[in-house]
Write a structure and sequence with these properties.
The protein is α/β, with parallel strands linked by helices. The chain is about 40% helix and about 25% strand. The strands form two sheets. The protein has a six-stranded mixed beta sheet, sandwiched between helices. The longest helix has 16 residues. The relative contact order is 0.17. The C terminus is likely disordered. Bound molecules: adenosine-5'-triphosphate.
């Protein structure tokens, strides 16, 4: 297993946001976490990447206990977190945002390796190359999301944590972001994906977990969850079956 959370419980003061969460992510997988607002999805990612450690339980990455490590150490070990609402540095250029994503690699790794990763990001998102001198705050929402993912990739992660990458984007851009996720998996990057767009998430994921009020309510292969009646009625909307049959495509 690349990542495992064991009996993880996370609190905000007295408020319990995660309750005894067990989760596993294997190398090369895309694993989705779906659930309603406030279910604890963002908290789970923050718990894994060291931003908000759990009160109880353990986070194991590559066989190492990372539960109490500072977030910066966790990045160095190979976990990149792309937070919700694409928090790019608005007054810096697109290029500088990408360079910042690799800040801990300069001086430790060959410059050519970092430059090759930059080229890889530009190949995934050609628009970022065109916009490299532009201030990040003036990019469109979709471009900022691409930049946020690109910046995460510049750390050369083994595991990419993506929090709601499709939030607020037009359907065409949502498709683009999901296409890139599939390409990243082909390239060997493992992804843990938080999504409200459960349909799109389950279409791309290998496995998924359903979080309800901080607990894992269901887990299984994406195929199993797509076929699950509770998932269909709670997260996919009533028209799901009909739409699938009509178009054979429920990715947008
Ligand atoms: P959303 O999709 O709305 O982001 P989520 O599934 O990511 O929801 P979380 O943001 O992880 O859910 O929130 C889980 C629970 O923890 C919610 O009940 C929320 O109100 C609470 N919570 C989150 N952040 C804080 C905080 N800083 N202080 C207190 N409670 C918080």
């Amino acid at each position: 297993m690349l990542l495992e959370t064991r009996n993880v419980s996370t609190f905000y003061g007295q408020i319990q946001a995660l309750d005894n969460v067990h989760l596993q992510v294997g190398e090369g997988e895309i694993v989705a976490i779906i659930g309603a607002n406030g279910a604890g999805k963002t908290t789970l990612l923050n718990t894994i990447c060291g931003v908000h450690p759990p009160r109880e339980g353990q986070v194991i990455f590559c066989g190492q206990d990372i539960t109490r490590l500072p977030a910066e150490r966790i990045v160095r070990l190979g976990i990149s977190h792309v937070p919700e609402r694409r928090q790019v540095f608005g007054t810096m250029s697109t290029l500088d945002n990408l360079i910042l994503g690799a800040y801990h690699r300069y001086g430790r790794e060959k410059k050519e390796d970092i430059e090759a990763d930059m080229e890889y990001v530009f190949q995934l998102f050609p628009i970022l190359k065109e916009r490299q001198k532009q201030m990040a705050g003036t990019l469109s929402g979709g471009e900022q999301q691409m930049l946020a993912i690109g910046r995460g990739l510049m750390a050369r992660p083994k595991l990419l944590l993506l929090d709601e990458p499709s939030l607020g984007l037009a359907p065409l851009l949502v498709r683009e972001i999901f296409r890139v996720m599939a390409e990243l998996r082909e390239h060997g990057t493992t992804i843990l994906l938080v999504e409200q767009n459960a349909r799109a998430a389950l279409r791309i994921a290998d496995r998924a977990y359903v979080l309800e009020t901080g607990e894992v309510a269901l887990e299984g292969t994406a195929e199993e969850l797509l076929a699950d009646e509770r998932v269909q009625s709670a997260y996919l909307g009533k028209g799901y079956r009909a739409e699938e049959q009509q178009t054979g495509d429920a990715s947008s």
